[in-house]
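Notebook, p. 212. Picked up where the previous page left off. The plan for this session was modest: take the two constructs that came back from the sequencing core last week, fold each one, and keep the raw output in the notebook itself so nobody has to go hunting through shared drives later. Recording the first one now, exactly as returned: residue sequence, then the structure token string.
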Amino acid sequence: MSSQIKSLPSIKTAIIGYGYSAKTFHIPFINALDEFEVSAISSSQVEAVKHDWPDVRHYLSAEDLIANSDAQLVIITAPNDVHFSLAKLALAHNKHVVLEKPFVTNISDGEELIALAKEKKLQLSVYHNRRWDGDFLTVKKLIAENKIGSIKHFESHFDRFRPTVRQRWREKASDGGGILFDLGPHLIDQALQLFGMPDAITAQCKIMREGSTNIDFFSLTLHYPDKLAVLNASLFSAGPNMRFNVQGELGNYVKFGLDPQEEQLKSGCELDADNYGAEDPAQYGVLYLADSSKPVATESGNYPHFYLQMAEAIRYGSQTPVAAIDALANIRLIELAMASSQLGKTLKVPL
């Protein structure tokens, strides 16, 4: 971060919602980085907010916070089905917006938000933080350095073991619920970062668990002229979970386990700690070539980069860390995936 940015006043930042996402993936960065100041929080968890943030203005409703706080930036971690209405209200009140993924739950809402942000000359971004996972940064580096050769098959997983339905909005919501909207955006965004929009998509989106009302298993195949990208998420994987299997003309890279940053943030690891974002060498992936194999040191993960770039976008009008138009492409593929699964056929992706 530059000394010029450090000398500027902090960006007053409000957080809507005080659940897992806000406390793990957003507030630690806003609190730690000089570029930001936590100025307001809206949540029904009155006592928890007052206990944790006694000097921060508390609002019971998101609407009250948007209308009456002095925040320049609003971070929305509320349920998916209110992303659109709250982001629209915040933009209408001349506030920059960061939305937790998914961006919105349908394409038309996303198009409206993008148009409004452009009209108001405000910054609108979506928190696709796993662009800065260490394992994904490693895959990007291996591809850029041609260590695997021309990619032919890209396999990416986000599997868990949660065979029993939980009573929470992410699993029960009729609009934007289920793992296609929860985990799908991570996998889709990473594939789009590597390969761009596919020509077509074939998808299986299933309800597998007893009592489930939303998609809790998916397998998406993105068709490119010279390769396939297969994105999977299951809630029935109890063993060691594969994260990547990237196959090319020179060999393949196989990686198990998840980036450590989430667990580090949950445990209170400081962002300036020497081990922040660093993976245990025992978890390194392996590069397999025709006649050899070797572990590949995982790049250090860097979630703070999202907010450092967001600060520059707000102050100087530079590119946001995740362009809203990129996040909209993600939603377009989710809609096509659901249609492909329902119709039982491969669908072309419109240009």
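Okay, moving on. Second construct, recorded in the same format:
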Amino acid sequence: MNMMANLGRARLQSMLASGIELLRIQQDLASRRSNLVAELLRGQDEFFEQQHYPAGDVFDPDTGAQYYYHAHRNETREHGHFHIFQRPHLLPERFEPVRYVKPGVGRCKPQEKIGEHWPRGEKALAHIVGVTMDNYGLPIRLFTVNRWVTDETWYSARDVIAMLDRFELRHSWPVPEVNRWINHLLRLYQPEIVELIHRRDAAVEARGRANPRGDALEDRSLEVTGFTEISVERRVRQLRRALGT
């Protein structure tokens, strides 16, 4: 609740509306003996680790919103997770990637410009947040990751937060319920996602200070930069109490 303490009543009401819509989507699918992940994977012969679902990702060419679902861990509670992105070139603002310079290892080595191999232009994408799903197809965790994990183009926390505010999937392919659910999840947990994005930058900067001759953004020992456990039902109850409804 502390994260919501400074939010105005109108903002809390908007978040509650998103929470109620999330529960409605989840309950409607449950009434059909299905869930978000099952709908997204419907028609797949087999679910393979590391493979993106659906093939080629979900991409809205009007807004630049993008996501895919996959799995790469054998964890008891986790079935897999969404990676949610924004393609900045389709937003009205112009966003420039962060510029990093790594000192040379030897005296005669020139400085190496970090980011020369990052995707550029229409291929550039910014990772906003990951969403872990349990074996019942429900969200249990939000997380952020280091650059190398998704091969993204690295933008500052300020810019990624601006992209979060503008994220919207407007089309219905491949599953309209999943697209609407992602839109509302990002609105419901916007305060937590903002905090995770700031923690992402802080984690990378701390790793860079600890190893100034390395490239913190490519450091394989730094994968998840922050996470927070979530429950839509719990958040809706919190919002109702805060609003006295």
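Notes on construct two before I forget. Strands lie at 53-59, 65-70, 78-86, 100-102, 112-114, 126-134, 139-145, 224-229.
Flagging for discussion at group meeting.
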